[in-house]
Amino acid sequence: MSEMDKKAMYKLTYGLFVCTAVLGEKKNGCIINTAIQVASDPNLISIAINKSNYTHDMVKESKKCNISVLSTEAPFELFKHFGFQSGRNVDKFANYKKYSVASNGIPYILEGTNAYFSLEVVQMVDLGSHTLFICKPTGMEVLRNKQSCTYEYYQENIKPKPEAVGVTIEGETVWKCRICGYTYVGEELPDDFICPICKHPKDDFEKIVK
């Protein structure tokens, strides 16, 4: 009988990317960890975006986007800016200037990146929590010769180490998201709980003990 040790999921390797889109006058972007070449003839790239992200809706409607490949030089503030807030509530490009615009009219990120791809959606697959977009590249460019940032590198070298938390003054238990550091106070974490910041489920939370 096989075991279901969900920690095995952390052994899968991922890159990290900023997916950007434009819809009307709105520019937006979010952090994704799935962008891979799935075919060479024709050349196709797949990306998966959580449906709770506003960027998801923009890509679904516009049928195009850019992905900027994050490098090991990417600062934590870049992850916070594009990953820890929603484009439904803020304009992520209002005061952000470290980008250029590709020929498809969509921004790509210049800070902490080593390449970008302009993509046109040719197929969409509903995966439940995410949509898988199969895309053909319409443009691509190497920006600098720096190593790409893996999810493991982000966890070990970029994301700040969690502070010791434990329990509140009132003695309540604290749960911390392993992905973004969001904390939830309560003895038990609801089974259907979704992190309001990075959208990860209960399995990515750990009980913090002093």
TrEMBL record:
Domain Rubredoxin-like residue range list: 172-208
Keywords: Oxidoreductase
Protein name: NADH-FMN oxidoreductase RutF, flavin reductase (DIM6/NTAB) family
Entry annotated with the keyword Signal: no
Pfam families per UniProt: Flavin_Reduct (PF01613), RUBY_RBDX (PF21349)
Superkingdom of the organism of origin: Bacteria
Keyword Isomerase: no
Organism (species): Lachnobacterium bovis
GO terms of molecular function: FMN binding; iron ion binding; riboflavin reductase (NADPH) activity
Cofactor(s) the protein requires to work: Fe(3+)
Coiled coil: none
